[in-house]
């Protein structure tokens, strides 16, 4: 127990110690007083009644002194403003990780609207982390640097407004999606989703944060007559999302197997509509479930409960003792 006004306690206990010392010193008046001779004092002091009265008086005196000292000490401690550390457990909403997964062309106006929406949202984020993944690049790793995310999302959204004959367009598009083709591999929507899912850190406990993946693009990236193999199956992507604790949401420009993945992870699935912002608001309004986080908050404040309680008990006992003695 800490004392806010500790000098009060020092002065108070110094006064108490001085009073006790003065009480124990032999009285000058006692030394100067003349005693009168009495007959048969030895016989009187041996009487049981006398011994009983002396014991009762001595005990009552000791109890009274102890209670007075205790009452005084409690008053001094209460006056010195004792303080203690108070703890409060507060429940809060878990933070969220959002990975934007773009399978549509970056020059598409819908993609620009999608990226602009989240650039505006990122300005208001607090503990949330946001990332961006294209079909073959991690454009923005999952980050809490919202200013960096806003700039990168704005730069990517700007690609839709650059004319096709602008010399800057090819280089800036390569920064978003690398123009790579393979002889023995063709990417699928499941491959893109798997790449996006790997953007969530594995060392973070999945239950501590809400994790959302929002996909924008076609439901299937492969042509109907495509014979080259893909890397991931839909079930593998569903299993990966379950391991990482991610809810997959999808807004698609064409039907495909993405719907099954979204439904299996309890996400929302819909074709891209004329009001994309409203659809995104609906997705953001239904984040995945997560455990409530609790935070222990400590603060120091006055805590006079103990000395006041001791003082009240001592005062009550002192009153009862005086009543008993009078009887």
TrEMBL record:
Could you list this entry's UniProt keywords, alphabetically sorted. Membrane, Transmembrane, Transmembrane helix
- The transmembrane segments are 6-25, 61-80, 306-325
Keyword flag Transmembrane helix: yes
- Report the superkingdom from the record: Bacteria
Q: What is this protein called?
A: VWFA domain-containing protein
Q: What is the lineage of its organism?
A: Bacteria, Bacillati, Actinomycetota, Actinomycetes, Mycobacteriales
């Amino acid at each position: 127990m800490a004392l806010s006004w500790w000098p009060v306690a020092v002065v108070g206990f110094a006064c108490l110690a001085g009073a006790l010392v003065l009480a124990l010193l032999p009285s000058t008046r006692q030394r100067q007083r003349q005693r009168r001779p009495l007959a048969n004092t030895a016989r009187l002091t041996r009487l049981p009644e006398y011994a009983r009265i002396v014991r009762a008086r001595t005990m009552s005196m000791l109890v009274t002194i102890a209670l007075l000292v205790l009452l005084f000490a409690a008053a001094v401690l209460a006056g010195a403003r004792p303080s203690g550390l108070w703890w409060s457990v507060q429940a809060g909403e878990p933070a969220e990780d959002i990975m934007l997964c773009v399978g549509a062309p970056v020059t598409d106006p819908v993609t620009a609207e999608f990226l602009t929406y989240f650039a505006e949202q990122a300005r208001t984020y607090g503990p949330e982390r946001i990332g961006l993944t294209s079909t073959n690049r991690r454009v923005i790793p999952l980050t809490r640097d919202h200013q960096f995310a806003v700039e990168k999302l704005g730069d990517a959204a700007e690609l839709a407004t650059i004319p096709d004959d602008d010399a800057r367009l090819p280089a800036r598009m390569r920064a978003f999606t690398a123009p790579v083709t393979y002889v023995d591999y063709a990417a699928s929507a499941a491959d893109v989703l798997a790449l996006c899912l790997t953007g969530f850190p594995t060392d973070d406990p999945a239950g501590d944060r809400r994790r959302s993946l929002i996909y924008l693009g076609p439901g299937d990236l492969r042509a109907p007559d495509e014979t080259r193999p893909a890397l991931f199956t839909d079930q593998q992507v569903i299993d990966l999302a379950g391991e990482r604790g991610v809810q997959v949401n999808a807004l698609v420009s064409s039907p495909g197997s993405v719907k099954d993945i979204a439904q299996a992870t309890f996400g929302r699935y819909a074709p891209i509509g004329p009001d994309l912002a409203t659809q995104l608001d609906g997705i953001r309004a239904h984040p995945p479930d997560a455990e409530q986080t609790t935070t222990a908050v400590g603060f120091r404040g006055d805590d006079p409960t103990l000395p006041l309680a001791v003082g009240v008990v001592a005062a009550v006992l002192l009153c009862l003792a005086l009543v008993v003695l009078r009887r």
